Amino acid sequence: MPTPLPAPYFVAASTPAAGLVGLDPADLARDDFIAVFTGNEVPARAQPLAAVYSGHQFGHWAGQLGDGRAILLGDIDGPQGRMELQLKGAGMTPYSRMGDGRAVLRSSIREFLCSEAMAALGVPTTRALVVTGSNKGIIRETMETAAVVTRMAPSFVRFGSFEHWRYRDKPEELRILADYVIKTFYPELAGAPNPYLALLEEVTRRTGVLIAHWQAVGFMHGVMNTDNMSILGITLDYGPFGFMEAFDVDHICNHTDQGGRYSYANQVPVGHWNCYALANALLPLIDDQEAAQAALDVYIDAYGTRFDELLHAKLGLTTTHEDDRALADTMFQLMQDNKVDFTLFFRRLGDLRLDVADAEREASDAPLRDLFLDRPAFDAWAAQYRARLRQEGSVDAARRVAMHAVNPKYILRNYLAQVAIEKAQNGDYSEVTRLLSVLERPFDEQPEHDAYAALPPDWAAHLEVSCSS
Ligand code: AMP
Ligand code: MG
């Protein structure tokens, strides 16, 4: 059962998330709703539970983990399907280990904003319905205050949920879990010759697709442990995540991840590695090592195909050409050498014009070109890119619309979250809601919110995020 918090208050709610469970967002600020979504009152028909799981953390077997501070209230049949509601930070569970079962306001706001921002970006993810807070003090690196974020997803089952029963050598429990997941979330696989193999293939495929979306939007999860990998292939557990700003393929967003296991570039092989861990857990059910091994190749294909599609769309290309890989490689290398802001680059690339006189090209390119220190190198790449666009008969206006529909103007930069968090820590929650409303429409121009698309200020260079949440 959740443990109540003293004098809870409303922090923020997501209107689109409320719609998924047929709730009126205005109701979420009511005292009776605040009580439920803080864990102070449990709805009459709810049967709260915390789930056990295990997992590999930073490549090492960590043994039993489990919902140490997450409590499932139950599920709701929403207009778009079944959604489970889970309170994160509502007190200790049998799996709290050394933890206090709590979440702080800072990390709850980060999870809330990022879940909803990712959904708006079209990235598969768990959702966040509402954040409530309490002035109860919570000890982290400094004293902070408690909060609860209500998350939603069709399921919170993780790769680690399967690893748990496998390492406990409990094949019957393993089978019950797999059958439940297939029956509830992958009913189309039930009739496959080997449903457990089909499950592995499908989860592996979805994971490859998920990682392609992360890479294409510059999202770094920060803690891709197998206990944070969803069996549905959706982004799960927002902690020390970050969005790529000055492009660096080796960027590490989690301050605690000193070895860079979960760096931007490493997300791709780690996603594959995690699927291996899942395959290993499912092996007693699949009972065919070779087939399980082969199923893992699905990851490479799914990732490669989706990333390629997303990259073509980001570049405004509607056809494919054998030189596209080289064009993209040169582009990424230039972005790396010049520390170009990932989001601004792709957004401004959409404004590039083919239909421009030679004499005006430099002025026309300036907003994009000025992101580079090495302007001649940019000019050389831009000439190749223009040639490629001309080759497929690209039209400026149409390409601009298409590119702006896939290259966001607004992402959850760390400093934007930090500003909202600091205001909230001083009792002003309005910036959380304002920022969320901007992030809900990441592809729209929203000229009145241009400031939210700006490069990070100097003070943000010192921002660090870690696992302490
Ligand atoms: P994470 O890497 O944040 O997904 O957390 C790893 C494990 O630690 C999970 O089992 C969490 O439930 C658990 N955990 C993290 N923070 C706490 C906390 N404050 N209290 C209890 N368990 C926690
Ligand atoms: Mg976790």
Low-pLDDT stretches are none
Note the beta-strand portion: 5-15%
**Structural class of the secondary elements?**
alpha+beta
Total DSSP helices: 16
**Whole-angstrom Rg:** 23 Å
Task: Give every kind of bound small molecule, once each.
Answer: adenosine monophosphate, magnesium ion
How does this model look, in words?
This protein has 469 residues and is of the alpha+beta class. Among the domains are: 159-309, no CATH class; 319-393, no CATH class. It is built from 16 helices and 10 strands. The strands form 3 sheets. Strands 1, 4, 5, 6, 7 and 8 form a 6-stranded antiparallel beta sheet that branches. It is globular. The model has no long low-confidence stretch (mean pLDDT 97).
Give a concise summary.
This protein is an alpha+beta fold and 469 residues long. Helices cover 44% and strands 13% of the residues.
Keywords for this entry:
binds magnesium ion; 469 residues; binds adenosine monophosphate; six-stranded antiparallel beta sheet; single chain; 10 strands; 13% strand; globular; alpha+beta
Task: Itemize the secondary structure elements and their pairings.
Layout: E1 9-13, H1 15-20, H2 31-38, E2 54-57, E3 60-64, E4 70-78, E5 81-88, E6 103-104, H3 105-121, E7 127-139, E8 143-153, H4 159-167, H5 171-185, H6 195-217, E9 219-220, E10 242-243, H7 267-286, H8 289-295, H9 297-314, H10 324-337, H11 342-349, H12 358-369, H13 375-391, H14 396-404, H15 414-425, H16 430-439
Antiparallel strand pairs: 1-7, 2-3, 4-5, 5-8, 6-8, 7-8, 9-10
Helix pairs in contact: 3-15, 3-16, 4-5, 4-7, 6-7, 6-9, 7-8, 10-13, 15-16
The structure holds adenosine monophosphate and magnesium ion.
Residues 65-69, 96, 99-102, 223, 225, 228, 237, 239, 467 line the site of adenosine monophosphate.
